[in-house]
Amino acid sequence: MKRWLLARRKPLLDSALLFCLASILIGPLFRLEYLNNWPSIESTFISEARMLAENLPHPGWQPMWYCGTRFDYIYPPALQYGTALISVVGHASTARAYHLYTAVLYAFGIVAVYWLVLAGSGWRAGALLSAAASALVSPSFALLTQYRHDSPFWTPQRLHVLMAYGEGPHISSLCVLPAALAACFIALRSRRPVMTVLAGVFCALTAANNFYGAVALAILFALMTWSVWAGERTAAVWLRAAAIIAIAYGLSAFWFTPSYVRVTLEDLQWVSSPGNAKSRIAMMALLALFGTASLAACDRRREREWPVFLAGAGVVFSVLILGLSSGFRIIGEAHRLIPEYDLLLILIVFEVVRQLWMRPKWRVTAVLASVIVFLPAIRYLAHAWSPFPASPALQDVYEYRITNWVHEHFPSQRVLPSGTVRFWFDAWKDNAQPDGGSEQGMLNQIIAAASWQILHGDRADLALEWLQALGADAVIVPDKNSLDAYRDYGKPEKFAGAAPLLYDDGHGTRIYRVPRVHEGIGRVVDEAKLLSVRAIRGGDDADALASYAALVEDKTQPETPVTWSGFDRARIDANVAAGQAVLLQETFDPAWRAYENGSRLRIRPEPGMDFMLIEAPPGAHHIEMRFETPLENRFGQALFVITVGVIAWIVRRRVVAS
Predict the structure, then answer these.
(1) Bridge partners of 501?
(2) Which long-range contacts (CB under 8 A, 24 or more apart) does 202-206 make?
(3) Which helix (H) or strand (E) covers residue 584, if one does?
């Protein structure tokens, strides 16, 4: 009995010790509010969490970015909700809550590596070494010199991209990934319903943190399932895999909708290079080769399932990442998976060490190999807390000063920022912008073309027409002397004299007013003329753009105020004449409804900018706009509730049986 209790206690003690040591290693992250790294994309997630915290339980629409988009489209929900709830419950800023969320998951991720190796090999020493290596080294640096040079003091890639580039969701997903794989490996090999549930929960959490983490999980889960089946040769493996997938999808269905997948794939064109057919064919051939080789290697031998899985995963990820230099590309940016590649390399190295240790004559070699793996950690440990520089007071921060000025002077109007100000535009206050914190979740695809023309074109008239078409009342323009780290504008001087100057910070950043008939995003337009305008194809489509801008900025039209009530409701006050319609310069979505006096008005997308055109009879109108939960989300919510009920039933049965 004592021996059994000790055997059960050791993993728990190991896990607690690893979590504590990992927490010490990243200690400042638990206390950090604002990092002195304002070009970081972490601003996107801090901003999203703040807006969510102020609109709980869940806004369907996000009117602050991309001229409006569904809130779910911008990012998977786990980090947003985790940060928002920590902020609300702990009465902390969302920046502080974001860093606490990522810190806890980072430390958990080191423990999860221990669980994965213990589940895969049963070797406790190897599990401890693998977990320690995940916290201290990046084997990929030996293969990818440019990434080694990019990481000061050889800070492990998972921590470097978290702090230098703000990849909080990706690294949080990476940290859950080993726990998901550990549970999957156990669940696939034997009939253990509770472990199947746990595998599904961890898989859902991995995907709910980040898209790239979900991609890595999908690849690794497929390879693992095949490897286990090659060793077991029973149909039960596929049934267990299907059960894990069903649970994971059931828990994700409320946000992982078909339209979310479509918009995410559409937006990839703005943030990544396209894949090519040769690479896809080569990958299919590689997977076929792995399948054939694994059948021969496993040959119904359970002890070979883990090493065969690691071998297959190592080869696939090596081809995906190392092949980029020679044009190998499936989809997306495979270099984003380098943190996952590090994890796999560590697992492979210590599996080799385990195999050597099992042979007494090779044990010295095993020890030497382990020592060599940890040598780069000496440099990192000497500067372990260097990735966490705290920011000066917000009042001294350029991004805060500019965004605060905009909120004070344009509190309910759309303004186009750029550079780091764009990143932080909504971190503290609601500031509507035509663009967003990143090119993810963008429902209206014309916005990317508009932004490119405004930022990089050399004509002020085209830029101002685009801004009018986007419903923007002002534009923030940093020049080459600005305090902005990015200085996106190719020719910032083009606005001088073309638009009224509103603000100059004295350091190269200026804010110009966009000439418009009325402020805001409400217009009364000639319906027939607007519907006859062809779709604006891009920044050089000057004729269509000029025609559209002239219609929405017609001097004869009356003022049409738009008042928002939260993120999902707005009121439009409009006076409509015969032949006119109400234009709301907000991206069309079929889930929007327009009501007046209990009657529903027709909404259709207009062809120029894909905004909402509302048909109303002549007269004065007070139109209530509501974003109603889309059917696919309601179906997903129902499936989520059913899945939770099934999980509760399985767990209850297990508790009663024990």
Answers:
(1) 512
(2) 202/176, 203/244, 203/245, 203/247, 203/248, 204/247, 204/248, 204/249, 204/251, 204/252, 205/78, 205/176, 205/180, 206/173, 206/176, 206/177, 206/180
(3) strand 580-587
218, 181 Cβ separation under 8 angstroms:
no
User: pLDDT category, 99, cuts 50, 70, 90?
Assistant: very high
For residue 503, give both structure tokens.
Answer: 């603000």
Please calculate the CA angle 341-206-426 and round it to the nearest 5 degrees: 100
Query: For a pLDDT cut of 70, what percent of the chain falls above it?
Result: 98
Token reading at 408: 């004070």
Contact 585, 552 (CB under 8 A): yes
pLDDT, tens digit, 9 for 90 and up, residues 225-273: 999 999 999 999 999 999 999 999 999 999 999 999 999 988 888 777 8
CA dihedral 120, 122, 127, 130 (to 10 degrees): -40
Tell me the three state secondary structure of residue 501.
strand
Q: Please report, in angstroms and rounded to a whole number, the separation of the first and last CA atoms in the chain.
A: 18
pLDDT digits (tens, 9 = 90+) for 160-217: 999 999 999 999 999 999 999 999 999 999 999 999 999 999 999 999 999 999 999 9
Give the separation between CA 414 and CA 513, rounded to whole angstroms: 11
* CA distance readout (Å), 187 to 191, 249, 300, 535: 7, 17, 17, 52
- Angle at which helix 94-121 crosses helix 2-25, to 10 degrees, equals 140
What are the backbone angles phi and psi of residue 571, rounded to the nearest 5°? -120, 130
d(CA 162, CA 213): 14
The CA-based dihedral angle spanning residues 301, 303, 307, 308, taken in that order and rounded to the nearest 10 degrees: 20
Tokens representing 93?
């800023």
